[in-house]
């Protein structure tokens, strides 16, 4: 029997809508600035940019339970805690240097997630050319809904994605505005990393990211996929 010096961390899992099986999360990849207007608001030129990637630790994932009130703890060491609503793609196959067809076949389903960001820490890191982990990869920084298995043969290429704070719509766009679509993102990612079953990809956020404070209620939706609601505490 294997003995460990310390107790291993439990698996990070997401429920799957309509199935008894659970989805074990392996890694969480994030795509930066994959909507043109968000790239512009962050000071970039989307016409020249290939997709770029960063990671969140899988322990950042916080499942949003639709049957209860969900809370999101305002993290330490920041004065600018910001939301970014995103389509999340769940993979059940992988590989290196995938073709578009292989990338398409790798997608099992979708979730709706938030890439919560300590924007002041991220901005400081960018100014000094340092890594983003302190601004992006911290506890509960990736709230996500249960996974919805894909429906039909085609990958999602349209659908309204929105986020509101205290009832005021802040982000509103459509998946058709993604600079790089789902399959293209997976292809580019597979050129840099070997992808595996259990990997999640957060595909980028629309424009109008912004801060929240304690007491704010965040609601988000992705047409035909999921809704989520939580309160900052």
Alpha plus pi helix count: 5
Regions with little confidence, pLDDT below 50 for 5+ residues: none
Distance between the termini: 42 Å
Measured as a percent range, the helix fraction is 10-25%
Sheet having the most strands: 6 strands, mixed
Q: What is the number of E strands?
A: 18
CATH superfamily grouping: Fumarylacetoacetase-like, C-terminal domain
Indicate the radius of gyration in whole angstroms.
17 Å
Number of domains: 1
From the spread of the alpha carbons, the general shape counts as globular
Q: What is the averaged pLDDT score? A: 95
CATH topology (fold) name: Fumarylacetoacetate hydrolase, domain 2
Strand percent estimate? 25-35%
Which structural class do you get from the secondary structure elements?
alpha+beta
Trace the largest sheet across and list its strands. 4-3-15-8-9-12
- SSE order, one letter for each helix or strand: EEEHEEEEEHEEHHEEEEHEEEE
Q: What is the level-2 CATH architecture name?
A: Alpha-Beta Complex
The CATH C-level class name: Alpha Beta
GO molecular function: acetylpyruvate hydrolase activity; metal ion binding
InterPro entries: Fumarylacetoacetase-like_C, Fumarylacetoacetase_C_sf
Protein name: 2-keto-4-pentenoate hydratase/2-oxohepta-3-ene-1,7-dioic acid hydratase (Catechol pathway)
Keywords: Metal-binding
